[in-house]
Amino acid sequence: MSRKQKTMLVRIIISAAALIALIFVPAEGYLRFALYMAVYLLIGYDILIKAVRGIISRQVFDECFLMAVASIGAIAIALINGNGDYVEAVAVMLFYQIGEWFQSYAVGRSRRNIGALMDIRPDWANVRVDGRLEKVDPDEVAVGSEIVVQPGEKVPIDGVIVDGRSVLNMAALTGESIPKDVAEGDSVISGSINMTGVLTVRTEKEFGESTASKILELVENAGSRKSRTENFISKFARIYTPAVCGAALALALLPPLAGMLFGSDPAWSQWIYRALTFLVISCPCALVISIPLSFFGGIGGASREGILVKGSNYLEALSHVGIVVFDKTGTLTKGVFEVNEIHHSSMDRSELLYYAAHAESASSHPIAKSIINAYGGEIDRSAVTGITEHSGRGITAKVSGHDVAVGNLHLMEDAGLTPQECHGTGTVIHTAVDGAYTGHLLITDSPKEHSAAAVRALRESGVERIVMLTGDADAIARSVADDLGIDEVHSRLLPADKVAEVERLLAEKPEKATLAFVGDGINDAPVLSRADLGIAMGAMGSDAAIEAADVVLMDDDPLKISKAVRIAKKCLRIVYENIWFAIGIKFLCLALGALGIANMWLAIFADVGVMVIAVLNAIRAMLVRKV
Amino acid sequence: MKKTYKIDVDCANCANKMEAAANKTEGVKNAVVNFMSLKMTVEFEDGADPAEVMPRILKACRKVESDCEIEF
Q1: Which of the four pLDDT bands, split at 50, 70 and 90, describes residue A265?
Q2: Positions of A marked catalytic
Q3: Disulfide check for A399: which of A2, A45, A347, A358 has CB 3.0–4.6 Å away?
C-alpha cells in the first residue's frame, strides 16, 4: 500500500466507525447536523475541494463534482424535510471513497504483480578490474567485454560463455520451467538466471540491444496500442456521464413542472432526490477501469508464458483468429536437416555414418552438417585425404584408406553403380565404399514434437482453416501436412509468392475472422506485416522477428500458438462480461431510480459493487497458467 | 518525434480525460495515455519543441484532473 492509500484507509475506517456510532447517538437539531457534517467533511473534504476546482476550470462532468452535488443535495433535502436523515449523504461519500480506494489498491497490486512476472531486468554486471570483480551498470559494458555471472544472478547482457559451466533457468523468458545446461561456447541470453556455476561471458551486444531490454521495452509499451473495445469504452464514458446528468436534470424539472401544469402536487423534493440518485450512478468507473485492467492482465499473463503480445489490439485480433497460415520451416518443422533413415545398407549404421561423415567433413552445407551430426563422434581430419567436390553431384574422398563416394544419383551412375530408389520423402544421399554401393541416407527436416498436437489444439480453439506454405517440393510438403493433419498446402513458393498467397487468403476470409501468419522470423518480415496478425516463433535472440511481428513467441513450441489464442479468448470474454455486466447494472439502477424504487443507498452500492466485481473479474485475466 | 513520459494519476477515467486534453494541445500530433503502466506517449508535430509543448500539456491535464503529474 502506498502512503496515500494508507491515509485513505484510516480515514475510511474512522468515518465508518463514527457513522455507525452516530446512528445510536440521540442528538437532535443543530448538534445532530454538526456531528454528521463533521463525519461528512472528514470522509469527503478532498472530493469537495476537487469539486470546487472542477467548477473553477469548468469541468462540470468531473466525478468529484457530481458526487459533491449528489451528497450536498441529499443533505439539503434532509434539512428541508426536517427529518434529520443525513446518514444517506455521508454514506454516499463513504462508499464512493471505499470504491476509489479499492480500485487504486487493486490496480496497484496488479501493476506490481505484472512487474514481478516480468522481473528480468538485470541490476548490474560484474566486470573484472585489476583481478577484482566490480559491479557496474550494465549500460556501461562495451560489446566484447568479459563479464562474470555468479550463481543466483541474472545474465545481464547477451553473449557467449568463454569459461565455466552451469544450469540456466529461463522460465521468465520462455515460460519453460526445465532448466538448460550450458557450457563454454554456448550463447546465453540476458534475463536468464544462472543457477549453479560461475560463468564468464563475452558480451555480444550492448545492454539496450540485449534480449531482456528488448522484451521489457516491448511489454511496457504494449498497452499503448489500444484495442477497439478500449476505444469504444473511452467514447462511451465521454457520452455516458453527460447523458446521465442531462437525464437527471430532466428528471428533477420536468415531472414537477408537469405536475404544476396539471394542478397536482409538484413533489419537488421527491423528484430532485431521484435526480440526485442518477448522479450517483453517473460515474463510468467500473467500465473504464476494468477493461484496460483485463487487457493488461491478459498481456502480462501471456508474457509469463513466453508469449509477448505487442498491444491490446493484437490480443483482440488473436481472439478472433479464423485462419492460421504457417510457413513450414522453423515453425512446424525444426528447420534443421536430420538423417532420419538409412536404407539398404550392407554395413553397420555407425560404420556407414563414419565414412559418410568423414567424406563430408570439410563441407559446410546443411546436408553435410546433418550427416556429421548423425555420426555424432569426433571427426578425425587426418583420416581423410583427397577430398574432391563434384559440383551438383557430391563428394569423393579417401577415408582411412577406403574410397568413399557420397552424393546423389548422378554420382553413383558416374561410378557405374545402380543405386536403390528411395520411397521416402526428403533428400536422398547415396553412398559407395570401395566401388560398392552401400545404401542411402534419407535426410529430412522433421516435424517438431508438438506440431501435430498444436494443429489439433488450434482447431479445438476455434481456428477453422489451417494453411501451410513452403518453398519445398510438393511431395515433402504433402507428407509433412499429412503427418500433422493439415489439409491445405501450397508448396514451391518463393518468398514473394508467400505474400501473394497470404493476400489471396485475406481476400477470401470472412469479414470478422482474422488471419494470423506464423513464421520463424527469418526472411518473412513482409508476410508478417501483411497479415492481420504476425506471429514470430523462436525469437530468442532474433531482433528482426521481434521488430516485425505483432505476437512474439519466445521459444519455438508451436503449442504456444493455441495457448496464445486461448489466453486472448479468455481475456476478451472477461472484457465482454464486464461491459455487459457494468452497463446492465447501471441502466437497471437508472431505471429503478427514475421510478423511485431504488434509493441513493442502492445506487451507491450498485456503483461500488459493480466496480469491485468488475475489477476482481478483470484480475482473472492474469491467471493463464492452466488456460 | 515520439516521446514517453511517466505520469501519475489516480483513476482510469481521469487518465482518459488527460489523453483527450493532451490531444487537443497545440503541437501534439497524437497522445496516448496508458493508465495501467502510467505512461503518456506523445507524438509531436513536426518542428514542435517538446520542452515547450510539455508544460502546455501539463496545464491542460491539470485542468481536467487537478492532482495529476507528468514527469518531463
Answers
A1: confident
A2: 327
A3: A358
Q: Provide, as residue numbers in chain A, all residues whose Cβ is less than 8 Å from the Cβ of B35.
A: 107, 289, 292
Residue A375 grid cell: 555420426
Mean predicted confidence (pLDDT) in A557-566: 92
Task: Check which CATH number belongs to the domain holding B21 and give it.
Answer: 3.30.70.100
Give the integer Cα–Cα distance in Å for A72 and A86. Answer: 10
The C-alpha of B51 sits at a distance from chain A's nearest C-alpha, in angstroms, of 22
Question: Which cell is B1 given?
Answer: 518525434
Tell me if A234 and B19 make a contact (CB, 8 A cut-off): yes
Please tell me the predicted confidence (pLDDT) of residue A543: 67
Q: Count how many domains chain B has.
A: 1
Question: Which residue has better confidence, A124 or A214?
Answer: A124
pLDDT band at B4, cuts 50/70/90?
A: confident
Q: Are strands A166-169 and A193-194 parallel, antiparallel or unpaired?
A: antiparallel
Between the two ends of chain B, the Cα-to-Cα distance in Å is 15
Residue A561 confidence (pLDDT) = 93
Q: How far apart are the first and last CA of chain A?
A: 30
Chain A residues in contact with B37 by the CB 8 A cut-off are 111, 220, 223, 296
Q: Which residue range(s) make up the domain with B14?
A: 2-71
Chains A, B: CB contacts within 8 A come to 67
Q: Is B66 in contact with A237 (Cβ distance < 8 A)?
A: no
Q: Does B39 touch chain A (CB under 8 A)?
A: yes
Report the C-alpha gap between A575 and A536 in whole angstroms.
Answer: 26
DSSP letters for A309-320: ES-HHHHHHHHT
CA dist., res. A339 & res. A132, Å (int): 48
pLDDT grade for A82, boundaries at 50, 70 and 90: confident
ipTM reported for the complex surpasses 0.95: no
Section A535-546 average pLDDT: 71
pLDDT at A404: 92
Q: Is the pLDDT at A279 greater than 80, yes or no?
A: yes
Residues 6+ apart with CB under 8 A from B4: A221, B39, B40, B41, B42
What CA–CA distance (Å, rounded) separates B60 from A482? Answer: 62
- Answer whether A57 sits within 8 Å of B34, measured CB to CB: no
Q: Cell 424504487 belongs to which residue?
A: A597
Among A463, A530, A478, smallest CA distance to A499 is for A530
d(CA A59, CA B64): 7
Question: Residue A162, by phi and psi: left (phi above 0), alpha (psi -120 to 50) or beta?
Answer: alpha
Q: Which chain B positions have a beta carbon within 8 Å of A288's beta carbon?
A: 11-13, 16
pTM: 0.81
d(CA A593, CA A615): 24
User: What's the CA gap between A234 and A513, in Å, rounded?
Assistant: 25
Across A439-453, b (16+ Cβ under 10 Å) vs e yields bbbbbbbbbbebbbb
The answer to whether B16 contacts A288, with C-beta atoms less than 8 Å apart, is yes
- Average pLDDT estimate for A271-285: 85
Quote the cell numbers at residue A299.
498481456
Question: In the predicted model, what is the mean pLDDT of residues A404-421?
Answer: 86
H-state helical runs in A176-267? 211-221, 228-261
Angle, to 10 degrees, between the axis of helix A228-261 and the axis of helix A312-319? 90
User: CB B63 to CB A59 under 8 A?
Assistant: yes
Nearest CB partner across the interface for A288, out of B12, B63, B64: B12
Chain A residues within 8 A of B38 when measuring between CB atoms: 111
- Tell me the per-residue pLDDT of A100-113, one tens digit each, with 9 for 90 and over: 899 888 888 888 87
- Which of chain A's residues have a Cβ under 8 Å away from the Cβ of B20? 238
Q: How confident is the model at residue A502 (pLDDT cuts 50, 70, 90)?
A: very high
Q: A433 - beta bridge partners?
A: A404, A436
